[in-house]
Design a protein that fits this description.
The protein has 554 residues and is mostly beta strands.
């Protein structure tokens, strides 16, 4: 679907992009924002040579971009004391634990049982303190890992071992020949060495990225077309400059060794950053002379204020339940622009313990300007079971591997089936109900895939059909609809983007690009007729695909 939407955008000569995204997470009181410093033009189906860096105010990670910053180049994996895999994205971002299918609570208890005698002997802890620590280590994997590392307690991986994450059983890690390989539903593979560093990314079409290191620092990232990003560092291992194809460069400066305070991106735009004495980012100055400001409760490490580039102010408050402060708390925000209140919100978070002792987010109640959304979550998959928005309710059911099985509302019910090999949606049954819950109409949509997981055929019970073929690099080559209208796509080699889009027997659209990969000209000798026919074919495709949209929680 990503390919077709980009091609449709090309045909209509409309493209959009964003270089930064900011948010205050009201569950964790954390401010985060991502900036793009380099973005090398690439085809839609290729891995992008791109430099994104993300700041997280509650992160203690001190990586190549400084304290609190992380990047995809720093994605890594760790091995837990029980021998499980902990995938840490962006160096300090989302953490996901992958376990063998036979893993259970007994493995955790075994690790704790090995740690407790060491603590008793070496630190002289009394039984009361040991008991409290034992209970905490059941759900605190980082604490468990710390003590296990201190006492050299670990489980070695076995050749051929497969690892799965709760709710993500459609993807997996496999350990073989000293390589950990993560395979995603799309067919993309991420490979890590025994030091936990990512070495390669591959897709089903053979495109790849290769990561090369000098000791523990990434030196180059090279794609299958020979294009690369090269990294230079200061003596303290902070990045000094990153260079890419065609003279593309980003430069960096630091204050006090750890704090990133100056960046010039590939477009020549300069951003400056200021911090408090605890490395908290407090101000960002933009090239257009605007700025943002962030305020903190330093004792709690909570974000309490955010001032955006339009000088709108957001004030945040946090409260803990007196009866169960670790499991139940809420936050509030009030946004004021030009003395007018434009948003008042409250978000309440309720956690529970599973039978195995692990804590999960069970419920979130959000009130935004008087509109209430109440979400309850699956205890294993961490996905919604119910979403109530004011008077409307959506209910979800899941297969054992975490894939969505049904989504139902008062007037609709959608049932999903999946292709066993690709694990992608193979059929969607959409039923429209009346006020009494009885079926009024029904629509079935079916999907077929090739061995590489590319969508090759889609049809629905209303007679719409589309068939697609691909070139050797996994790019859409032809699209044929139910009326046997054919759209043929040829690509230019510099960026791998569509250069000629034709309707055989009707006409051709030719697209040229600027040096930076942006569209320069769109020409057609046949006028708008061919563009309308091509757009019609793409819209037909998008209409057929819409029931399988991943946005099933909207």
């Amino acid at each position: 679907m990503k390919r077709t939407s980009r091609l449709l955008a090309l045909v209509t000569a409309f493209l959009g992009s964003a270089t930064a995204h900011a948010i205050v997470d009201m569950k964790t009181a954390n401010y985060s924002q991502t900036w793009t410093d380099i973005d090398v033009p690439s085809a839609a189906n290729q891995f992008k040579l791109k430099v994104d860096r993300t700041y997280n105010s509650r992160s203690l990670f001190d990586g190549m971009f400084g304290f609190g910053w992380c990047s995809d180049f720093e994605t890594r994996l760790d091995i837990t004391p029980e021998g499980n895999i902990r995938l840490i994205e962006c160096g300090s971002g989302q953490e996901t634990v992958y376990m063998p299918l036979e893993f259970n609570r007994k493995d955790i208890d075994k690790t704790i049982a090995a740690i407790l005698p060491k603590l008793r002997q070496q630190q002289g802890m009394d039984e009361k303190a040991l008991k409290a620590l034992q209970e905490e280590m059941v759900s605190n994997a980082k604490l468990r890992a710390k003590y296990a590392a201190d006492f050299k307690i670990k489980v070695e991986p076995k050749e051929g071992m497969q690892y799965f994450a709760n709710g993500r059983e459609v993807e997996k890690f496999v350990f073989s020949k000293n390589v950990y390989t993560r395979t995603l539903v799309s067919g993309t593979q991420m490979r890590f060495n025994t030091q936990g560093r990512m070495t390669h990314m591959y897709d089903a079409a053979g495109n790849f990225l290769r990561f090369e290191y000098d000791k523990d620092q990434v030196r180059e990232v090279v794609d299958n077309n020979g294009r690369k990003l090269s990294f230079k560092y200061f003596n303290n291992k902070k990045v000094k400059a990153i260079s890419g194809p065609n003279g593309t460069t980003a430069e960096y400066k630091f204050e006090g060794l750890d704090d990133l305070n100056w960046v010039k991106n590939q477009w020549g735009n300069i951003y400056t950053y200021a911090y408090d004495d605890r490395h908290n980012l407090v101000k960002v100055n933009y090239p257009d002379k605007t700025s943002i400001q962030i305020g903190y409760n330093q004792e709690r490490d909570w974000v309490t204020k955010f001032v955006d580039r339009d000088k709108c102010t957001e004030d945040y408050g946090y409260e803990l339940s007196k009866s169960d402060p670790k499991m139940h708390y809420w936050s509030t925000v009030k946004k004021v622009c030009r003395k007018e209140i434009v948003n008042e919100s409250k978000h309440e978070f309720i956690h529970k313990k599973r039978d195995d002792g692990q804590v999960y987010l069970q419920r979130v109640i959000s009130t935004i300007n008087g509109s209430v959304t109440d979400i309850t979550y699956h205890e294993v998959f961490n996905r919604p079971l119910t979403i109530r928005r004011n008077a409307e309710t959506s209910n979800f059911e899941y297969y054992a591997n975490g894939q969505i099985r049904t989504k139902s509302t008062r007037l609709t019910r959608m049932t999903y089936q999946y292709d066993k090999k690709s694990q992608k949606v193979s059929e969607v049954q959409t039923t429209v109900l009346n006020d009494k819950g009885k079926a009024v109409t029904s629509r079935k949509t079916a999907f077929q895939y090739d061995a590489k997981g590319n969508l090759t055929f889609a049809s629905n019970s209303e007679g719409q059909r589309v068939r697609m073929t691909y070139d050797g690099r996994g790019r859409i080559k032809t699209i044929t609809d139910q009326a046997r209208k054919v759209v043929r796509i040829d690509y230019e080699e510099r960026f791998g983007k569509p250069a000629v889009v034709s309707r055989p027997g009707l006409g051709t659209i030719r697209v040229s690009y600027k040096a930076n990969g942006d569209i320069d000209k769109v020409n057609s000798a046949e006028g708008p007729t061919v563009a309308m026919q091509v757009a019609s074919t793409f819209n037909n495709l998008l209409d057929i695909l819409s029931p399988a949209s991943p946005e099933v929680y909207n």
